[in-house]
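Entry for the shared binder. Reason: the reviewer on the internal report wants the predicted structure included alongside the sequence.
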Amino acid sequence: VGRGPAVGAPGAAPVGAVAGHPRAACVPHPGGPLYLSRFAADGGGSPLPAATAPEHPAFAALADWARGADGGIARIVDAYRGQSRLGLEIELPGPVGERNLYSLHPRGNIAMLARSEAGFWNQLAAILATGNRAVIVADSVAADTAALPAAAAARLVHTAHDLGTVADINTALIEGGAEEVARATAILAARRGAIVTPHAVESSGELELPPGAFTRKMLHATVTTPHGRLLFATTHLDHLDEATRSLQIQAVLDELESLGGALPDVVLTGDFNEGPDGGVHLRMTTASFSDLWQALHPGDNGFTYPAPQPSIRIDYVWLKAGLLPERIQQILDVVVQGVTGSDHFGLWGLFRL
């Protein structure tokens, strides 16, 4: 539920969405696995430093109250103690001397769409632990909150509006299976104004690629949309050795095939460190992936690296199967006082399911 600003670094750039269009995806130089894997929890817990700031007063009040309430509520709320990294700031090493600051801040108003009392308390605890405000929409299950302490109650709003009409929300927590998530996602996508992102990832993970000059990975997530399920992945291939890139892209394709199964729609983005005339591009097209830039801008070199005067195209958005290309353009290509947003130009891609 926390929000971290973009990490501006070679090989680590944000993947986001463009406000106002439900199918837009903004993919500035996607090499993020190099940094993102440091923040991803594994079986040993999160590698992020423990929280140093005091618990948010609203969450502390909720946790103290829960100890005297129903035992099930106490167990749910207590599980969030010490888990929030609200206020955390980490300065990451800059490969070329730049300063990269990763920090976590509240999102603001979070809509709650619970389908059980346990789900309600889980959502409320997560929202308050991360310093946000809870908005209980009309179509959500709502537990009895009349006895909540004032500090917690002040961060909780009951509204007569449903998920589609409630104003001023920044994201939504959704409890339910694939059909419930798809329904809620369709409602959020139909809203006017800025995109409200549902937290509804079906599954996610990472794959460590064959070793090269640096550790390289692929991150992937399967998401549910109103039009079907989508497998999204991003990677960053070796920059020195063609043979290593060949091994890495084969590992990526094998993993996507294994993950996809009967799932036809796949998006793969990343810094492939190789131009369209290389073996990696041939391997991708042979595997039935479509190069979004090449499909929509045939004959345009579309150079992305090195900024601000790129001379080679090594960053890609790849689509497979039923995804229909609609638009792609470069971003982060504006020079301000001699500096661009990354050492690569980014890509903004639009496709239709």
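Summary line for the report: The two ends are 27 Å apart (CA to CA).
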